[in-house]
Design brief:
Layout (H helix, E strand, L loop, with lengths): L1 H11 L12 H9 L5 H6 L14 E5 L4 H6 L6 H12 L8 E4 L13 H18 L3 E5 L1 H7 L5 H4 L4 E5 L2 E8 L2 H6 L4 H17 L1
Helix pairs in contact: 2-6
Length: about 210
């Protein structure tokens, strides 16, 4: 009986999760910038890159992790892939300032290596809270890592441009996986396919 009482009291007086209790994107991003959950990333980064865009954006884009230029500027997708993303958005009638852009991992991995599962797990509460606060109509998953985080059994080459629904934090969201814009930089022959996939964003938004 005493054990149960102690457990109840422990739960009752446990401090609230600061991520879950964040009421605004700015407040949440302050926690991201101060985060030191991942020792290696916290030591290696110049700064954390929480994300950028309107706090009520209809569309949220999720990439993999910040790179060199993102780490320096503190903003996602500012290198070559970012320039191509801006171009793709304009082709479908969207401005970059209208969408919210972030990554699965908020700090640059050393030498731009792939993010570790433990790092993605550490960042997951921040990402989920971003989605809960923004309440987007559509979440665009850019590349393999973003897709596998939400749909671990799917492959990007098969899932690209096919919308699907999933509940996150008690709210069902529409997700749209697609090839990462960086592929269009490295392989010019993939640009027509990437652009075709981006038109699916316009189609889904118009239907919602």
């Amino acid at each position: 009986m005493s054990d149960l009482t102690d457990l109840s009291q422990g739960d009752l007086f446990a401090p609230p999760d600061p991520i879950v209790t964040c009421k605004t994107i700015d407040e949440l991003h302050g926690l991201v910038r101060d985060c030191s959950k991942c020792d290696e990333l916290a030591e290696y980064r110049t700064q954390a890159v929480p994300g950028v865009g309107p706090p009520d954006a209809r569309v949220v884009f999720i990439g993999e992790a910040p790179g060199r230029w993102e780490d320096k500027k503190g903003e996602p997708f500012v290198g070559d892939a970012g320039a191509y993303l801006t171009e793709l958005l304009e082709k479908i009638g969207l401005q970059r300032s209208q969408v919210f852009i972030t990554n699965i991992v908020k700090c640059r991995p050393p030498d731009n290596r792939n993010p570790k599962t433990s790092e993605m797990d550490s960042c997951a509460p921040y990402l989920e809270r971003q989605l809960a606060l923004i309440k987007p109509d559509l979440v665009v998953l850019l590349g393999r890592f973003a897709l596998e985080r939400f749909f671990p059994k799917e492959k990007i080459t098969e899932a690209a441009a096919v919308p699907r629904r999933k509940a996150i934090g008690g709210r069902e969201l529409t997700f749209l996986p697609m090839l990462h814009p960086a592929f269009g930089i490295r392989r010019q022959d993939l640009k027509p396919e990437i652009e075709r996939q981006f038109w699916k964003i316009r189609e889904v938004l118009d239907a919602l």
